[in-house]
Amino acid sequence: MNKIYQIYQISDSTGETLDRIFLAIKAQFSNFKCKTIHLSFTRTENQVDKILSKSKEEKNVIILYTIVDSDLARYLALKCKQINIPCFEVLGNLISNFSKLLKQEASHKPSGQHALGKEYYKRIEAIQFTISHDDGKIISDLEKSDIILVGVSRTSKTPTSIYLANRGYKTANIPIILNKNLPEQIIQNTKKTCIIGLVCDSMRLSDVRKNRVQFIHKDRPSEYTNEKKIIDELENSKKLFKKNNWPIIDVTRKSVEETAASIIKIFDILNTR
Q1: What is the bridge-based pairing of β-strands 194-199 and 171-175?
Q2: Cα separation of 200 and 152, whole Å?
Q3: Cα(141)–Cα(114) distance, integer angstroms
Q4: Residue 12 half-sphere exposure toward CB, CA atoms < 13 A
Q5: N or C: which end of the chain has fewer CB within 10 A?
Q6: Model pLDDT for residues 232-258, shown as the tens digit of each residue
Q7: What does the buried/exposed string (b/e) look like for 214-247 if buried means 16 or more CB atoms within 10 Å of the residue's CB?
Q8: All structural domains of the chain with their residue ranges
């Protein structure tokens, strides 16, 4: 019988960084069964003591932590050693190495990446822009977009746009509908905006659409889920992308994060020409 590990993720901030790192680690081990306990905003020895007191009652505990206060980090590591609980610091050595390389003391300030600086407000502005320009809602100012995603219905345009917005990219997305022209601003693209076409395997797309229709209990034309009609839609969209020399990304086997990473790479290439 496989062990079920209790993964304590202790952070002095939101824990978002630690969670992403752990997910990357977990993906490397197919038979790794675990329960994750998130413990954010841990900034005192008293908090650490309470966490470890609880952890001693559990079996197969592993502690991962991101704590920039070096004294508190040492305290946690010492206490874990005393009670024989595996304990791993995720960012400590990295921060220390950067400090040496840059010949600069780290601030050791929790939530430093969440400071309300220029990047933060840029991200908020991008999110607001992206939400208001979802699914072709607003097309009058598409030239303000950093990225425009184009594709038939259910090709991950919206979730990918939101992810890109969280990275600071103003992203609009436009649906392709058979026998309906795209906005003239996109075709002309006088601002040379990064426009990318998204496609998907027809069977996969049919399944996604059927699930969507079932979920919202909404009657839609049978063509919406008909695989032959979907093939026609996709072929039409590919012809359109090629005609306008827009890069094409197949999202069939890609997560939103992988699709976004490919888009950002294309965006960077286009903006270095």
Answers
A1: unpaired
A2: 9
A3: 30
A4: 22
A5: N
A6: 999 999 999 999 999 999 999 999 999
A7: eeeeeeeeeebbeeebbeebbeebeeebeeeebb
A8: 4-114, 118-270
The pLDDT tens digits for 37-82 are 999 889 999 999 999 999 999 999 999 999 988 899 999 999 999 9
Sheet holding 61-66, edge to edge: 33-39, 4-11, 61-66, 87-89
Beta-bridge partner residues of 61: 6
Q: What is the DSSP string of the chain?
A: ---EEEEEEEESS-SHHHHHHHHHHHTT-TT-EEEEEEE-S--SHHHHHHHHHHHTTSSSEEEEEE---HHHHHHHHHHHHHTT--EEESSHHHHHHHHHHHT------TTGGG-SSHHHHHHHHHHHHHHHTGGGS--TTGGG-SEEEEESTTSSHHHHHHHHHHTT--EEEEE--TT-PPPHHHHH-TT--EEEEEE--HHHHHHHHHHHHHHHT----GGGT-HHHHHHHHHHHHHHHHHTT--EEE-TT--HHHHHHHHHHHHHHHTT-
Q: Does domain 4-114 have CATH number 3.40.50?
A: yes
Beta bridge partners, 248, equal 197
Tokens of 152: 């038939």
How far, in Å, CA of 156 to CA of 99, rounded?
40
pTM beyond cutoff 0.85: no
Query: C-alpha 248: how far from its chain's center?
Result: 20
The CATH topology of domain 118-270 is Rossmann fold (3.40.50)
